[in-house]
Amino acid sequence: MKPHGADEPADEHLDVVIVGAGLSGIGAAYRLQTRCPGRSYAVLEARAAVGGTWDLFRYPGVRSDSDMYTLGYVFRPWREGKSLADGDSIRRYIEQTAHEHGIDQHIRFSTKVLAVDWSTISARWTVTIEEGGADGCATRRTLTCNFLYSCAGYYDYDSGHSPDFPGTDSFDGTVVHPQFWPEDLDYTGKRVVVIGSGATAVTLVPAMAEQAEHVTMLQRSPTWISSVPGRDRIADRLRKVLPARAAHRLIRGKNIAFSIGFYQFCRRQPQRARKLLTGLTTRILEDKEAVAEHFTPRYDPWDQRLCAVPDADLFVTVKKGQAEVVTDHIDTFVPEGIRLRSGRVLDADVVVTATGLKLLAFGGITPHVDGRPVRLSEQFVWRGAMITGVPNFAVCIGYTNASWTLRADLSHRLVCKVLNHMDRHGLATAVPEPDQPLAERPLLELTAGYVQRSIDAFPRQGDRSPWLMRQNYLLDILSGMRADLRRDLRVSPRP
């Protein structure tokens, strides 16, 4: 079998191709420019704008669920006041970062990756892309690269998770999914039901309550929700007395330490964590029965990702009577709204199905090696970035218990370290390979439904370092500096 692309001329050759111009892709490009200067690269972005997730999601109140001092880049301090920032501010921050560092000159917009195939003979990736397409005039071509880095995340941008609710066709109102929010949707003075209790739902409810007649958050079971300050007062004080970069380092360090400490507290002492979270919510709502019914999950904190609400906005909205939380199951949609198993009917003009996202491994890219598809579920991830069985390839996977960007930046730096190692030693290929058999563990160890529905399609993590993805930034940054590339990578020299 002749490997695809081994002898076929491509339209262009690059040293590195980065897939995705979101928060991760722009950070990867910055690290590549500064740590591997002189290498040619391109950032391929399927959408027509920078921002990735933050360009896609346009629902009311969309915001980060991690503080911007750690979700933002370490090399470009976050200077705005909000700790949990709105989507427009985050998108603008990414755009400005790309422009300030000249990264925008390397981005190919409206360029979708259709296929990637590694050739052992030429030691190159052939990347098949489709350019344009918005006006129906898409062009398909190929390019080659020495190294491929997927920064497209693990969400399916083309479809969200939408359960098949009975009776939907009989509903007289409007049903929308947050991932595809209609620009012309007017919910002013209307009755809204938001189905779900995750990060999207708890964001939508207080935001829509500002204009809607009434908003109901309908959940099958409660989710752990914690109030956090909308502004970081310590950060504000530090920025007044210190230079921007020095203040940013201190704020970032403080927030990293707090997030790691709170996560470890929840995992090691779940009963005390439950008592703390329910106590804080009771103090705000002043209703023990409501907290017990609607805000006390069966699972322990951080078995699933903890939802953060700035300045207790969800709880305040509920306390004011502008919104309510209902814990029940859907029996069927009816013309006037939703009938629950209890028999109650929730009247609605608009129903928002905040029922979750779909996971999609590496933006839907299935690597091929010499024409054969790689079974990702049979592979292992090394240091959270490179994958067994796939040469010169890396993926960006963030933390589940902290800001995505913290781990993303470690992955960028590791990729640069591998590239420089290959250059110093005249190597053409590098692929991670364990020296002993590994016990399989799921890549993301969360019990959330959106993870459990799709995680079997992803590579595995192992049971020991450097194949184990620890949810601890401090340990990861220390071990990353000591990464033994000679031991863990199987390499071949340039011809």
UniProtKB/TrEMBL annotation:
Coiled coil: none annotated. Its EC number is 1.14.13.-. It comes from the Bacteria. SUPFAM superfamilies: FAD/NAD(P)-binding domain. InterPro entries: FAD-binding_MO (IPR051820), FAD/NAD-bd_sf (IPR036188), Flavin_mOase-like (IPR020946). Transmembrane segments: none annotated. Its cofactor is FAD. One of its GO terms (molecular function) is monooxygenase activity. Belongs to the FAD-binding monooxygenase family. This is Flavin-containing monooxygenase.
